[in-house]
Design a protein that fits this description.
The complex is a heterodimer of chains A (248) and B (274). Chain A is α/β, with parallel strands linked by helices. Chain A has 8 helices and 8 strands; from the N terminus they run βββαβαααβαβαββαα. Chain A has helices spanning 46-54, 86-97, 101-111, 127-138, 157-173, 183-189, 207-217, 228-241, and strands at residues 2-15, 18-31, 35-39, 61-66, 145-149, 175-180, 192-197, 200-204. Classes of the chains: A alpha/beta (248), B mainly alpha (274).
Chain lengths: 248, 274
């Protein structure tokens, strides 16, 4: 049983310096109930692939088939409106997907220790609270497929630990597809490894094989630890600074 | 032995069950968007939504004041208020619904943030919310006219009034879809359309009865689909209202064709409707 299937997907973006072809003929298939980590160097098209899977970017050609409900990318701000309260935003996302909004709001209030703040508009949140809200909200609804672009978990201190545990818990219940540049993250959260390189997705049953291929492509990643953690922080910062809702 | 597929296997191909499932999801999404929209309109002030309800009533009051001052008689019936009211309401229904849908996609900021929400849902949600608002305004307006002592404000042939309202709403939603796609590309379209659609007030029979016009003018006016919606709606209020110009097939046909054009535009530009 497949969670997501891409067949013959082509995608070209119109950049300022001419068209940029990201995928020409991409075939990929993600099994259900399995966590897939996608490694790739910068500009390999990881984010585009994830957006194609999530449906926020439509392919020029080809088909993307999803079996089950798909979460917005973890910690994305796009689905939320800054003028609405945390609870209202959660209810909206839950209603759209046919889930229980009350349960989600209870979960987020409890998990992110928000207290009364869940009934205040998102624009009033502090940076820390905002990041907690985003991560807790991402895992609050029972999606069949969770997507994460670089940021799988975040926050600081104890929350960060609990957030990582939460990801592990969701991983056993649902399909998880995430992109990363860190082999360490792959070891920690993936069942299957994949490497995105030159418009092709190479899947490996064993994580080690994926990491070996990735290393051969990107000599910059010398060891498991160096470089990667900082990058990871960068990605979380990115979400914390993004505005809510309409970007225009 | 019969083969039983695993319970979670999705149904393949198309069938009534799959269609019903899709429809349920669509209704769910549209309702969620409508609730969000309603909430967002009252973010700045709790009165902003109330004001939207009162706008037609205020505008009608203003027009009444002017017309009473220049001593104008109603073109049909005994009450100027009712005559103008039955004209202004379908007109507002059309301009508000088709006009507000123009900026729907940009204003929501939601295109494809969530997988189940498609541009069409966003446009439909706004158009339907506006239609419901105008329905509420209609009830309010005619109750108000009734309260001022005009007993005819309760439609004598309610089915005709409801049909007229529905046909006008259909036309407006179809136009709204076309506008919504164009508006997603050209910001200025809302301004152009706003001016153009408001000028329809002089061509749609708000102030006059089309059948009382000289035939050559009537022939020209009858090309305007909104005029037919207005006639249809108004004929529900007056037993003897002349409906020689009214062509129900024309307005419905116009609406169906517009709807098809709107849906086609949405399909063609779907990937770029951000």
């Amino acid at each position: 049983m497949r969670a997501v299937e891409l067949s013959g997907v082509a995608k070209t973006f119109r950049a300022s310096h001419g068209p940029r072809r990201v995928f020409e003929h991409l075939d990929a298939s993600f099994p259900r109930g399995v966590s897939v980590g996608i490694l790739g160097v910068r500009n390999a098209g990881k984010s585009t692939l994830l957006r194609l899977i999530g449906g926020s970017v439509l392919p020029d050609y080809g088909r993307v088939r999803r079996n089950g409900s798909v979460s917005p990318p973890v910690a994305t701000t796009q689905a939320y409106h800054a003028a609405l309260t945390g609870r209202e935003n959660l209810h909206f996302v839950a209603r759209v997907n046919g889930f229980d909004g009350d349960a989600a709001a209870r979960f987020v209030a409890d998990f992110a220790q928000m207290g009364e703040a869940i009934d205040q508009p998102l624009s009033s949140y502090t940076r820390e609270r905002r990041s907690r809200f985003l991560f807790a909200a991402s895992y609050a609804l029972p999606f069949d497929i969770y997507l994460a672009d670089e940021a799988l978990f975040g926050g600081t201190g104890v929350f960060r630990e609990r957030c990582a545990e939460l990801v592990q818990a969701r991983r056993t219940q649902a399909t998880l597809i995430f992109t990363t540049r860190s082999p360490q993250m792959l070891r920690r959260f993936a069942d299957i490894g994949a490497v995105l390189h030159e418009g092709r997705l190479h899947m490996f049953e064993r994580i080690g094989d994926a990491i070996r291929l990735f290393r051969s492509l990107d000599p910059g990643t010398a060891s498991d630890t160096d470089g990667a953690p900082e990058d990871e922080e960068d990605e979380e910062e990115r979400f914390a600074d993004e505005p809510f809702g309409p970007s225009a | 032995m019969t083969y039983t597929p695993p319970f979670d296997a999705p149904e393949q191909g198309f069938g009534p069950r799959r269609f019903a499932e899709g429809l349920r999801a669509q209704v769910r999404v549209v309702i969620a968007l409508m609730l969000r929209e309603m909430r967002l309109r009252s973010v700045h002030s709790r009165f902003s939504y109330l004001l939207a309800l009162l706008e037609p009533i205020l505008q009608l009051t203003l027009m009444m004041t002017i017309f009473t001052y220049i001593g104008r008689r109603p073109e049909f019936g005994t009450s100027l208020l009712l005559f103008l009211g039955t004209g202004i309401l379908p007109f507002f229904l059309f301009t508000h619904v088709s006009g507000r849908t123009t900026g729907a996609i940009r204003a929501s900021g939601l295109v494809r943030a969530l997988a189940p929400i498609q541009p069409l849902d966003i446009m439909l949600a706004r158009a339907l919310l506006e239609t419901l608002t105008l329905l509420f305004v209609a009830v309010l307006l005619f109750t108000f006219i009734y309260a001022t002592g005009v007993k005819e404000a309760i439609p004598i042939r309610p089915m005709l009034a409801i049909e007229g309202f529905a046909a006008t709403a259909f036309l407006a939603i179809a136009f709204g879809l076309i506008n919504g796609v164009i508006g997603a590309f050209f910001r200025l379209w809302a301004v152009f359309y706003g001016v153009a659609s408001r000028s329809l007030i002089f061509l749609s029979g708000v102030f006059f009865v089309p059948d009382f016009m000289p035939p050559p003018i009537r022939a020209v006016l009858s090309w305007n689909p909104l005029l037919h919606g207005l006639e249809w709606f108004r004929s529900g209020f007056y037993l003897t209202y002349p409906t020689l110009t009214l062509d129900k097939g024309y307005i419905l046909g116009f609406a169906v064709v517009s709807l098809l054009i709107g849906l086609a535009l949405e399909r063609v530009f779907r990937a770029r409707l951000i």
